[in-house]
Amino acid sequence: MRFDVLTLFPDLFAPHLTQGITRRAFASGQVDVRLWPLRDHADDAYRRVDDRPYGGGPGMVLLAQPLLRALEAIKADRAEPGLAVVHFTPTGQRLDQSLVQRLAAGSGAILLCGRYEGVDQRVLDTQVTQEISLGDFVLSGGEIPALALLDAVARLQEGVLHAPSHQQDSFGDGLLEGPHYSRPERLDIDGAEHGVPPVLLSGHHGDVARWRRERSLELTARRRPDLLAQARAAGRLSALDERFLRSLGL
Question: Which of the residues are catalytic?
Fold first, then answer.
């Protein structure tokens, strides 16, 4: 798959694409990321891509013409009909694991990283097919959401992680992931001893799996009851799950 990133700050992406376990996806070309500096498509000697908004107000707005030229160049380079154009904005759809999974199974997209006060609305109305938000807060631009999306998509590619890893992630089955422990078995913290739950040392795979499921259910019920309600509505909770939740008064 291929992601073409239209940005004012392409240098922000290089460290991410070459570090960590997800670099496997980028280095192998499983996730082909191509950076398109917006200023390369300006039409004056100053490489200007923004101006004051009509009607007044603070900040600057990214101009339509450089954006349209850049999008035309990307589409011509890809020659792929129906290509998705994603714009990152607080008013967009919340990015979640189901959306990441859909994108990870596709051919990629154009990622439009806005800056300043925003993007000329005419570009959004005529060119953008999807708007995505990381949450109910405002960032300086779309580069951080684009990086988050690329990371989330990359780690789902075959061979990037050990096979079961992403399958057990939070949201993989609609629930939050439970706690994890490693060596040493007993640990002194501020004068108090903290051990590993005995079931994890038992070697009984069925008991371990059930313990992990129950911790996941409990954590989701206490911190994200909305997710638990969605899992219940989708029929993803077993009778055993429901019995455990009732035992907790949940």
Answer: 90, 117, 155, 169
Residue 21 belongs to domain with CATH number: 3.40.1280.10
Whole-model pTM: value is 0.84
Same-domain status, 68 and 146: yes
CATH number of the domain residue 183 falls in: 1.10.1270.20
What tens digit of pLDDT does each residue of 60-90 get? Answer: 999 999 999 999 999 999 999 999 999 999 9
In tens, the pLDDT along 97-114 reads 999 999 999 999 999 999
- For the chain, give the secondary structure using H, E and C: CEEEEEECCHHHCHHHHCCCCCHHHHHHCCCEEEEEEHHHHCCCCCCCCEECCCCCCCCCEECHHHHHHHHHHHHHHHCCCCCCEEEEEEEEEECCHHHHHHHHCCCEEEEECCECCEECHHHHHHHCCEEEECCCCCCCECHHHHHHHHHHHHCCCCCCCCCCCHHHCCCCCCCCCCCCCCCCCEEEECCEEEECCHHHHCCCHHHHHHHHHHHHHHHHHHHCHHHHHHHHHCCCCCHHHHHHHHHCCC
pLDDT digits (tens, 9 = 90+) for 35-63: 999 999 999 888 999 999 999 988 999 99
pLDDT of residue 166: 45
